[in-house]
Amino acid sequence: MAVTRRELIQGAAAGAAGLVVGGVVGNAVGGDGEGGGGGSSGLSGRAADIAKERGLSPDDVARAVKTYVPGGKKDEFVILSSGGHSGQMLAIGVPSMRILKVIGVFTPEPWQGHGFGADSSDSVISAGTDFTNKVASKARGPLTWADTHHPGISETNGEYDGRWVYINDRANGRIAMVDLRDFKTKQILDVPNLDSSHGGVFVTPNTDYVHISTKIPTLVDRVNIEKSLDNVAQAYRGYSTWLKVDPKTGRMDVSQSFQIEIPPYWQDLADCGKLVSDGWGFVNSYNTERAVGGNLEGKPSLEVGASQNDFDFLHIINWKKGAEVAKTKSKVINGIRVIPMDVAVSEGLLYLAPEPKSPHGVDVAPNGEYISVGGKLDPHVTIYAWSKIQKAIDDKNFEKKDDYGVPVLKFDAIVAGQVEVGAGPLHTQYDEKGHGYISLFIESAVAKFTLGEPYFSGDKAFKLVDKVSINYNIGHLCTMEGDTVKPAGKYLVALNKWSIDRFLTVGTLKPQNFQLVDLTTEKMEVLSDMPIGVGEPHYVQAIRADRLKAWEVYPVGTDPLTFEKSPTAAEKDKEKIERKGNTVEIWTTVTRSRFKPDTVKVKEGDKIIWHLTNIETTPDATHGFSIPRYNVNISLDPGESVTTEFVADAKGAFAYYCTEFCSALHLEMQGWLLVS
Ligand code: RUQ
Ligand code: CUA
Predict the structure, then answer these.
(1) Which atom number of ligand 1 is nearest to the Cα of residue 269?
(2) How many Å separate Cα 298 from the centre of its chain?
(3) Mind listing the pLDDT tens digit for each residue in 348-360?
(4) Given ligand 1 and candidates 168, 216, 269, which is best to mutate, with the most ligand atoms within 8 Å of its CB?
(5) Do 200 and 150 contact (CB within 8 A), yes or no?
(6) Are strands 89-94 and 99-103 parallel, antiparallel or unpaired?
(7) Cα angle vertex 414, ends 411, 416, to 5°?
């Protein structure tokens, strides 16, 4: 049967498609060959019968019991996960690994009415593209997707405080803030001078600043663009950006922020100093070679050119002093104060430390003393000691200066230990007992190692103590509150890039796989798998659920952008329609199961300003407001007040309706917009 593309899209070929799906189900039951029926499960009665019938081994049963969260009971932790190139964020319960929410961030999210006509979300999304200072096509309009990578939960005294979470856009050098009172995005900032970003996001221990750095360095002056790659060392620069956080709203204020100009190495991961290393930040890099590829012209590909040096550089940055220096010795570039690199060097804001060959993660231990760097192309994790770094800085114990005059500390003087962990070490997280857990991408495993004093001493320090295989190709990992001053240990989540044969095949694009690992037993054990069918999560942070104080409902009439009563909120019994010239303004209340007014008559070409308030006070009593053909689709959570504006440029009778099944009379919750 010949099927055109158009027929396929329109579903005419649905019958043919059905053929492809059969035959797959058989894979589901076989398990891992870990044996046994339920007969030897140690269970008796009904549970034993069920385990036997389902072919579950005693270990399967134990793992299930460890992760099962009965209906109505709540998870102990919540992980906030990047959604990768879905541009969203995910909230997931641990240990159940159930998705609690997909949070609309950079990408419009219809379920939440995010970016489909609600003024609050539309203004957040459209303000997230800087057309003046950064490159963006006006004709294409604001950016509506992002490659979300690194969440950073706000902290107080180095512990998560459950107020806000920040997340960067890898592709466009942007950062967003989600308020954890309502899990909604309040700000998207197009960071000046950053054309891209990667793992450079963290908050300082009291959320004074959020940090974000360049990944690919930025072309400083957009002149001579064609030749710029021949002169990367001079034409491009990196920026370590310290965005000042408003302590009341969590919003980032560019006017109070500053950047430190850094060399055009490819800055990669970053982490903040804490306790003894408070006031400092750490940003690592690769491609200190500054290779740019050019393989069609016969030059080595980027991955070859970028892997020549035996050492790359960890940037060690004094941000507390930087905040002072920015007041007097910076210049404003594209709206942000920038401390030039020579000033950063002469003021002692910037040092470099050698890192073995193309490193990846840099992670500061809970006590602030140890800083672990994964080797990526080197089987070791290198652990630096902050006390040694400090001493080397004080003693000016430099082995050289780099090409930009930045002092490079002597490697041997600052390393506390190295542990051979396996192939492809990337990211480290910690527990409360002085262990590091590092992901091994190539080996598809997690290695557990010990730190030194005060946790371990003598030949117990800096030792590999355990390893567990995961499936497959782990990128990040996350222990519970594992990058705070007080990790909770208990579980580890492995963020695996591939899932290959772990799940039913649902097409050629496979989900990634989160695996939950038990840290309470002497040997680490994988407890469960969780397919992630929405984007490629890069990094997650796990917060104790009891630190989250999310609202159940808004006070009636609340504007979610300000958390204050909206001056234009519609009020019960004061609903109205007003016309001024060509502008029609409507105040509508929304409740089970009606919109009032339910009939709105306008003229073609009128400008419509429509205020809607959900006057419900019952948790979960959410209503939708959708106008067909106008691409308006708003979620009105209990108490929420929203305004939508549009020009009534299409004639017709439009039956607007509620998109949430809110009551027995949900289907009757409908009104008319007549445009004549
Ligand atoms: S870093 S590819 Cu978070 Cu391992 Cu991004
Ligand atoms: Cu309100 Cu359905």
Answers:
(1) 1
(2) 37
(3) 999 999 999 889 9
(4) 269
(5) yes
(6) antiparallel
(7) 110
CB 201 within 8 A of CB 175: yes
Q: Alpha-carbon distance 575 to 564, whole Å?
A: 20
Q: Which residues line ligand 1 (CB under 6 A)?
A: 149-150, 198-199, 269, 360, 426-427, 475-476, 538-539
Q: What is the pLDDT of residues 332-347, one digit of tens each?
A: 999 999 999 999 999 9
**Residue 401 tokens, joined:** 């200066």
If one counts every other C-beta atom within 10 angstroms of the C-beta of residue 70, the result is 6
Residue 633 C-beta-side C-alpha neighbours within 13 Å: 14
- For the stretch 174-232, pLDDT in tens is 999 999 999 999 999 999 999 999 999 999 999 999 999 999 999 999 889 999 999 99
For residue 592, give the ligand 2 atom closest to its CA. 1
Q: Where in the chain is the domain with CATH 2.130.10.10?
A: 77-107+145-291+302-547
DSSP 402: -
Q: Residue 278 in 3-state DSSP?
A: coil
Ligand 1 centroid, distance to 198 Cα (angstroms)? 7
φ, ψ at 457 (rounded to 5°): -135, 170
Query: In terms of Cα–Cα distance, which of 343, 341, 374, 345 is closest to 358?
Result: 374
**Does residue 459 surpass a pLDDT of 50?**
yes
Answer yes or no: is the C-beta of 105 below 6 A from any ligand 2 atom: no
Look at the block and give the residue holding tokens 């038990």: 518
- Cα torsion 199, 325, 245, 151 to 10°: value is 10
Burial class (CB in 10 A: 0-12, 13-18, 19+), 313: buried
Helix (H, G, I), strand (E, B) or coil at 62: helix
Regarding the beta carbon of 666 and ligand 2, being less than 6 Å apart is answered yes
Positive/negative CA dihedral, 186, 192, 195, 199: negative
Degrees, nearest 5: CA angle 4-8-14: 130
Angle at 145 between CA 166 and CA 236, to 5 degrees: 75
- Chain mean position to CA 297: 37
Report the C-alpha gap between 325 and 163 in whole angstroms.
Answer: 29
- What is the position in ligand 1's atom list of the atom closest to the CA of 426? 4
**CATH no., domain 558-675:** 2.60.40.420
Q: Write down the pLDDT at residue 135.
A: 83
- Using an 8 Å Cβ cutoff, are 570 and 588 in contact? yes
Q: Where in the chain is the domain with CATH 2.60.40.420?
A: 558-675
Domain spanning 77-107+145-291+302-547: which superfamily?
YVTN repeat-like/Quinoprotein amine dehydrogenase (2.130.10.10)
CA distances from 670 to 416, 585, 608, 654, 660 (A): 68, 19, 18, 10, 12
Which ligand places an atom closest to the C-alpha of 667? 2
Query: Has residue 41 got a pLDDT over 60?
Result: no
Q: Do 176 and 128 form a contact (C-beta atoms < 8 A)?
A: yes
Is the pLDDT at 77 greater than 80, yes or no?
Answer: yes
Calculate the alpha carbon distances from 433 to 159, 221, 457, 482 in Å.
Answer: 17, 49, 13, 11
Are the beta carbons of 82 and 538 closer than 8 angstroms? yes
**Would you list the DSSP string of 430-455?**
E-TTSEEEEEETTTTEEEEEE--TTT
